[in-house]
Amino acid sequence: MTLGDFLWDRLGRLVLLLAAGAGSILFLSLTGTQPGILAILGLVWAILFLAVQAVDFLKCRGRLLELEAILEGLDQKHLFAECLPRPETARERALFGLMRRAGKGAVEAVSDARAAQREYREYIESWVHEIKTPITAARLICRGADSVLRRKLITELSQIENHVERALFYARAESPEQDFLIRQSSLEAIAAEAIEQHRSLLIQSGVRIETQGLEQMVYTDGKWACFLLGQLLQNAVRYRNPEPVIVLAAKPLGRQVQLTVSDNGLGIPAQELPRIFDRGFTGSNGRARGGSTGMGLYLCRKLAAMLEIRLEARSLEGQGTAVILTFPARETLP
Prior knowledge:
Blueprint: H1 3-9, H2 11-30, H3 35-72, H4 90-142, H5 147-172, E1 183-186, H6 187-197, H7 199-204, E2 208-212, E3 217-220, H8 222-238, E4 245-253, E5 256-263, H9 283-289, H10 296-306, E6 310-316, E7 320-328
Parallel strand pairs: 2-4
Antiparallel strand pairs: 1-3, 4-5, 5-7, 6-7
């Protein structure tokens, strides 16, 4: 609260007090009180008036700062009403009572939302576990089909598995600590696993993979880093040109390792580049080709933030796109 806010809030009361003081002095003057006495009375009244307002202002400001400090110290702001100090006035008792009633409703709403979210996450995790059984069965059935049909079916099943992994990550995104294990991992092994998981898609799409300098160690969760890299590979395949090439190149940068995933595909229009990591953004290429959900790169950005990986993209329309991932490579010194 500023002094201006305080004065404006009490403007009516202050005007009334000033008018009462001026009226009292005028009345005493008309009754023949000596000017010297009037001057002394006026000075005493002014000093008392200013002192009372100053004390009131400092008290109100101190109280608000106390409440603000309590709020800032809370991790869960909706519990503010439960942590209020003892009210000092009848007005505060009334206001704090209303705030506690409102806070109780907010706490109940948050609790209900968390319970519903937890049930939904548990359902998704259960669904992912169950859906993998028919996917595995379908892969076994594919072995009896001719080579062309088998290759096509395996590619489609791989796509289904990718969507299932997306659903699992999205369900666990609010509590990543339950499924993340950060440790020193081989970037080469992560890249190899991501390529292997998408081998059918890459072969069917005629994509050539090139790797450079992947013999690096990084601090990350290998499973989810592989998932992130897989999303980038899928994007590169989706927006490929007739002779697609994807290059995975890494280089050390002090305590970090920079991995660049580049392709020679369609590229991204300059005006769309700042939005490619936004949720649901498909862009002109996605709308032209169809089937794009705008969730892949959004999940990449969210996952990268959780893994403390810096993610950025560069692109020239018609020439290709490069996505740069900067991994922690060494433990930070305390």
